[in-house]
Write a structure and sequence with these properties.
mainly alpha, 3 helices, single chain
Amino acid sequence: MKSTRHRTSALVVSTVLLPAAAPCAQACAVCFGARGGAISNAANMMLLVMLGFVFFILLSIGGFIFLLARRGHASRAELEKAAGFADHHPIH
């Protein structure tokens, strides 16, 4: 029973301490707050690029909706004009 406890505690300690001691597991310059570093500048540019993608996609969706609305309005006006309703019921 005692040896099982020691093995469990040794396993827990080694699981926690070994990754923390590895150089690749330590925090990068962004996490340490190194302003003006190459990594932090790259991270800032990456965020701007992703925001640009989101803006472009939302703008494209809005443009497509606007295009559909214009085409729908134009086709309705043409149908009413062809049917002779344009004189009596103007489109608002």
